[in-house]
């Protein structure tokens, strides 16, 4: 198997989710640091335009979105499992809630003036403007929660999570960590970085103790490589063959030219040949002068598959 290469930047919350999963599974990995804002020409050569962070690369297979990234890491290292029986379904549902509802409540809460200073205070004024413009373009016309509404909702969410730990279990769904823990953790990790506002966590002591447990899954020291090294790996590799039955829910056959686009924000389509449509995953083959022939993978949930026009 090819090496695991994570394209990320240190302050990305979703990248923190994957970094903790890699630590939990004790998987060695290589690190490529990408820009926090567009343009990202080296990453675009691999993904075809997907702009979110992180992206996982295994040879010439490129995985977009932490939902599918975590499934891939589970296939590579089944133990310890992110989806322990009998709570696998609960874990996936709670993870989806955390990655969407909880995350988009934390973001407007954190980016109040006091929190924004903690998160972005290291940036120069011109860099701050670039960051703001990039995130505005990324969000587009997607609904935004007002900070006052986030401040009203977030304490309730934190209390509900705290209540899940009331029975004394070390993790949200019992004795073992699951994908739910890592998805909730990355949101609260980002919240904790806004020190002026993180005092809200003091109201939920069990949740704070759980955060310390999650933080104990140390990242370790990945091998740092450059973007050109990752592109060379893609060029010299062959994508893994498609596996499993083709599940057609769109009337689009294998081999058709398609686009795959996030359904909520960062609506940048990736175009290519549809080579896989499994129960949980889409995969499209595309070629790039720098990356060669690659297959880009997306989860079904949260993404739109369309025939290319």
From TrEMBL:
Residues 84-240 form the GST C-terminal domain. It comes from Noviherbaspirillum suwonense. This is Glutathione S-transferase. Residues 2-81 form the GST N-terminal domain. It comes from the Bacteria. The lineage of its organism: Bacteria, Pseudomonadati, Pseudomonadota, Betaproteobacteria, Burkholderiales. Pfam families: GST_C_2 (PF13410), GST_N_3 (PF13417). Gene3D superfamilies: 3.40.30.110.
């Amino acid at each position: 198997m090819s090496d695991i290469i994570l394209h990320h930047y240190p302050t990305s919350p979703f990248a923190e989710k994957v970094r903790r999963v890699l630590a939990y599974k004790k998987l060695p990995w290589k690190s490529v640091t990408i820009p926090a804002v567009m343009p990202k020409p080296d990453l675009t050569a691999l993904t075809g335009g997907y702009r979110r962070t992180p992206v996982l690369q295994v040879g010439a297979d490129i995985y977009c979105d932490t939902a599918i990234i975590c499934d891939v890491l589970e296939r590579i290292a089944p133990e310890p499992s992110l989806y322990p029986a009998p709570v696998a379904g609960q874990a996936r549902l709670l993870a989806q809630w955390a990655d969407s509802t909880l995350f988009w409540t934390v973001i407007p809460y954190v980016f109040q003036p006091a929190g924004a200073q903690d998160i972005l205070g290291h940036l120069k004024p011109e860099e701050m403007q670039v960051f703001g413009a990039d995130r505005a373009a990324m969000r587009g016309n997607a609904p935004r929660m007002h900070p006052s509404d986030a401040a009203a909702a977030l304490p309730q969410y934190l209390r509900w999570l705290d209540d899940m730990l009331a029975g004394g279990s070390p993790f949200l769904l019992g004795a073992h960590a699951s994908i739910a823990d890592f998805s909730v953790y990355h949101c609260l990790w980002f919240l904790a970085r806004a020190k002026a506002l993180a005092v809200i966590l003091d109201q939920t002591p069990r949740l704070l103790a759980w955060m310390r447990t999650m933080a104990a899954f140390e990242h370790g020291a990945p091998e740092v490589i450059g973007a050109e090294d990752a592109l060379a790996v893609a060029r010299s590799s062959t994508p893994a063959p498609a596996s499993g039955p083709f599940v057609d829910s769109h009337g689009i056959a294998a081999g058709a030219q398609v686009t795959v686009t996030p359904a909520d924000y960062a609506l940048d389509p990736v175009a290519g040949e549809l080579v896989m449509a499994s129960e949980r995953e889409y995969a499209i083959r595309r070629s790039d002068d720098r990356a060669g022939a690659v297959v880009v993978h997306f989860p079904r949930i949260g993404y739109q598959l369309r025939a290319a026009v």
